Structures are given as C-alpha cells and as structure tokens.
Amino acid sequence: MGIIQLQNIKKSFDENVVLKDINLSVGKSEVVVIMGPSGSGKSTLLRCITFLEEPDKGVIRLGENEVTAGNQPNKQRKATIRELRQNTGFVFQQFNLFPHRTALENVMEGPIVIKKMDRDQAKKKAIALLTKVGLADRMDHYPAQLSGGQQQRVAIARALSMEPMVMLYDEPTSALDPELVREVLLVMKDLAKEGMTMVVVTHEMGFAKDVADRVIFMDDGVIVEEGSSQEIFNNPKEERTKQFLQDVG
Ligand code: ADP
Ligand code: MG
Q: What are the residue boundaries of the ABC transporter domain, all occurrences included (predicted)?
C-alpha cells in the first residue's frame, strides 16, 4: 500500500471541473513526476493532497492519516489535516520565504514554532540542512540577497526541517533563470537518492528521465497515462501525450 493514497478525488471550481476522478498511489521512496499542459489540474491535485484545497469528493491518506473529503469539519478531522500537513514538505514555484528573516531563521522557524524544538537544537539542525543544500556560506543572508536558485534551496531546507514523510514540489524551477535550474534539481536528485518520497510537478524532462520512478501525464483533470520515463517519453500511447511532448520538446 502507498504512503500517499488518493481515491476518487474530484474537485470543481464553480462549473469548472478541474479534477475528474483521480486515483493515485505513491509508494515509499518513490519519485513520481507529473506533467501536463497548463490548466490541466496539476497544482490543484498537489494542493488537494494537503487540503490547501478541499476536494469535493474522495479520500486522501498520507501514512496513517486518512481524511474523507466533504465531511463536516470537526476537531478530530482538523487535527488529522494538521498532522497530514506537518508530514508534507511543500515547495512552490515562488519560494515564499519570510523576507525579513535570514536563510537560517527561515529554516529554524518551523521546528521552533510548530515542533516546539529548543532554539539551539533548531539552529544546529538548520545549519546542517543549509549545508546539505550547499548554502553553508549564505546562512546569514536575507532572501533578497540570494539568487532565485539559492532561495529555492533555502525553501527546500525549510521544508526538510519538519522531517516530512513526503515532499511535494510544484514547478520548483519554473521561476528560475535557466542557469539556476540545475543547482535546484541536483539537490532534489540527492534527496531522491536518499530515499525521500517525492511528487514533482515539472516539465524538466532531463530530471524526469534521471530521477523519476514513474511519470504521470495529466490533461483536463484526468491521468491520461502513466509509466516509466522511458515508456512515456519514448513510446507514449495516447495522442494527447504525444502532442504535449511535441509541444514541450
Ligand atoms: P495546472 O497547475 O495544471 O496549470 P491548476 O490546477 O492550477 O492547473 O488549474 C486547473 C484549473 O483550475 C484551471 O482552469 C484554473 O483556472 C482553475 N483553478 C485553479 N485554482 C482555482 C481557484 N482557486 N479558483 C478558481 N479556479 C481555479
Ligand atoms: Mg500549476
């Protein structure tokens, strides 16, 4: 059974049906890359996993925490969603760092505020994580003093500081100048090698070929096809996948 399990997820915004009936299971240490045209529902799907968007229907399970969409909110449900979120590291296209905190302070924040870790311990941990993402010499810089690639690496370190069960990335390199993409992908690749479970929305085919255990092609709110990167890139079965690969390739 998967560490992430999505069953029959449906989501509409008014009359716009954005997720039609999504079933997805992600195994422990698996790296799943999601591709698809703009507007196909990729971000909404990631956001539904952590209830940043509430699905209209379906069941979401992350580890032990299972939530059914559309249930009346109650205390227990809220607590489960909170736990589910704490077990998920989310990295967005826009890095969303606190602008008035240094890189180090950004990474210390979650463990101190949410995990009630003591400051010295949180600092030690943050230093280790920033070193891991190659920013040992930038810890005291503010976001504005860092390049986009450096800011995104801080964002990854910040997500890791909560020791998530899974990492979700929504087009983590799309806002970056081309020369900064590689350094972020390398950090993600290292994490994958260490066994981190990851769901990555990206159009970086090189990354998908190198790192993905499975590539999912989404269009118009459905999973059109999925397979190894080899299968999807070299031998797509569906017309929509072929068209998309022609357009991005
Ligand atoms: P993708 O990430 O694949 O580009 P999205 O999940 O962002 O796609 O969007 C899918 C569809 O849902 C789009 O038609 C978009 O306009 C719509 N949508 C996304 N978020 C909202 C929202 N908060 N309110 C209304 N419509 C939304
Ligand atoms: Mg998106």
A: 4-245
Q: Are strands 166-170 and 88-91 parallel, antiparallel or unpaired?
A: parallel
Residue 18 C-alpha to ligand 1 middle, in angstroms?
7
Q: Is the ipTM of this complex over 0.90?
A: yes
Ligand nearest to the CA of 47: 1
The 3-state DSSP class for residue 197 equals strand
Report which protein residue has its CA nearest ligand 1's atom 14.
39
**Ion ligand 2: residues, Cβ under 5 Å:** 42-43
pTM exceeds cut of 0.90: yes
Task: Please identify which residue in the block is written with the tokens 């260490």.
Answer: 194
Which residue is listed with tokens 């005291």?
Answer: 140
Measure Cα distances from 204 to 200, 201, 248 in Å: 10, 9, 10
Nearest CA to ligand 1 atom 26: 13
Amino acid at 45: L
Compute the CA torsion angle 197, 203, 209, 211 (nearest 10 deg).
-20
